[in-house]
């Protein structure tokens, strides 16, 4: 019985792949015509010149994606426009980013802890399960970070950050993903997140804890086009989300989000940003926490194979759940650790990647 099921799955996989490739070819033809007859190339990056070229949702599905994002983000947009007088949070609302001084992180970001993070990458750099090389950029990730380094849970519990996230995204904001990230010193790239882009998912926050015990500014800051987060972008897919460097520099004030050892960087990924991946810097190590809203996730779930939402992850039981923005409805006690989130999309079908 299981052999028949296996064969059936394999055949389905081939059919889905074929279908996806046919729609990819037809979309590419239309897109090339569009590129030829508009000012696209003065503003955005030609997607056909990128290594990163995933499948884009077709016609009406693409409209629905825009609709879901617009509908879910309307309340947040209103806050962004009205909240400028709120002094404490005004930077995030008006600029799209904020650098927050925080003693909890300052204390955590000491020599011993930085060493522990560095060692994790040294140990696991060859392990396929926990690190991943994307686009040959020498960027590595360790998923389930609190399993490997339990004290990191403290950073999920910082009240100031969690309040700011809730204030910005609304009360239903919750943790979507967490990962340790290493930008290798050899990273040198003009692809993917090295280009100015928005994350194609509307308003969402990323929090960067950059590990650097020295009292100087962290190397390799994210570059952010100030106030570009107020936009509602015409399309939300990887093909149309990369912007021309000159265009961004002419149209926006570009800020470099440097942080000191006791500073946390938070930004809205709907604004244009890019990683700073040029050579001659040091390795950069960060814990990245991602926060989004839950209704948007559930709306996407109804739409199709969109891998957006709370990514499936293990979380150490050392965590004090009530101090975090972990949504308990998506949390299962698995004995030694918690399992959070769900992997609901089907890998056998084409994924409309949002990043
Ligand atoms: Fe991004």
What's the layout of helices and strands?
Layout: H1 2-37, H2 40-43, H3 59-82, H4 90-95, E1 97-101, H5 103-108, H6 111-124, E2 139-143, H7 145-148, H8 153-156, H9 159-169, E3 174-183, E4 196-197, E5 205-211, E6 222-225, E7 242-243, H10 245-251, E8 254-257, E9 263-268, E10 273-274, E11 284-292, H11 294-303, E12 313-316, E13 331-333, E14 337-340
Antiparallel strand pairs: 1-9, 2-3, 3-11, 4-7, 5-9, 5-11, 6-8, 6-10, 12-14, 13-14
The protein binds fe (ii) ion (FE2).
Order of helices and strands: HHHHEHHEHHHEEEEEHEEEEHEEE
Taking the alpha carbons of the first and last residues, their distance comes to 38 Å
Share of residues in helices: 25-40%
Strand % is 15-25%
The tally of helices reads: 11
> Ligands in the structure?
fe (ii) ion
Q: Provide the domain count.
A: 1
Number of strands: 14
Largest sheet: 6 strands, antiparallel
- Under the CATH scheme, the architecture is Sandwich
- Overall pLDDT score: 86
What structural category arises from helix and sheet content? alpha+beta
Task: Please state the overall shape, judged from the principal axes of the Cα atoms.
Answer: globular
What is the CATH T-level topology? Answer: Jelly Rolls
| Low-confidence region ranges | 126-135
Write a compact overview of the structure shown.
This protein has eleven helices and 14 strands. It is α+β, with helices and mostly antiparallel strands.
Features:
6-stranded antiparallel β-sheet; Jelly Rolls; alpha+beta; 3-stranded antiparallel β-sheet
């Amino acid at each position: 019985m299981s052999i028949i099921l296996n064969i059936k799955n394999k055949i389905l996989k081939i059919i889905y792949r074929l279908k996806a490739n046919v729609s990819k070819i037809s979309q590419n033809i239309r897109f090339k015509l569009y590129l030829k007859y508009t000012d696209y190339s003065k503003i955005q990056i030609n997607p056909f010149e990128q290594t990163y070229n995933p499948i884009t949702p077709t016609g009406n599905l693409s409209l629905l994606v825009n609709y879901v994002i617009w509908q879910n983000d309307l309340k947040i947009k209103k806050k962004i426009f009205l909240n400028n007088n709120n002094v404490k949070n005004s930077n995030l609302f008006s600029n799209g980013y904020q650098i927050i001084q925080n003693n909890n992180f300052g204390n955590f970001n000491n020599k011993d802890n930085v060493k522990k993070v560095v060692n994790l990458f040294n140990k696991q750099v060859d392990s396929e399960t926990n690190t991943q090389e994307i686009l040959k950029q020498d960027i590595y990730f360790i998923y389930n970070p609190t399993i490997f380094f339990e004290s990191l849970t403290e950073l999920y519990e910082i009240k100031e950050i969690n309040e700011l996230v809730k204030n910005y995204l609304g009360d239903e904001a919750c943790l979507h993903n967490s990962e340790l990230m290493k930008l290798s010193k050899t990273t040198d790239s003009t692809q993917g997140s090295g280009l100015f882009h928005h994350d194609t998912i509307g308003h969402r926050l990323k929090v960067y804890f950059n590990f650097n015990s020295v009292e100087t500014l962290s190397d390799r800051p994210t570059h952010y086009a100030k106030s570009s987060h107020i936009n509602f972008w015409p399309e939300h897919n990887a093909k149309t989300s990369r912007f021309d460097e000159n265009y961004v520099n002419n149209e926006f004030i570009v800020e470099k989000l440097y942080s000191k050892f006791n500073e946390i960087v938070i930004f809205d990924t709907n604004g244009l940003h890019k990683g700073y991946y040029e050579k001659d810097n040091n390795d950069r190590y960060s814990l990245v926490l991602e926060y989004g809203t839950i209704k948007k996730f559930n709306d996407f779930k109804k739409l199709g194979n969109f891998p957006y939402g709370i990514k499936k992850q293990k979380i150490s039981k050392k965590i004090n759940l009530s101090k975090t923005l972990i949504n308990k409805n998506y949390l299962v006690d698995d004995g030694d650790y918690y399992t959070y989130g769900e992997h609901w999309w089907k890998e056998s079908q084409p994924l409309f990647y949002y990043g």
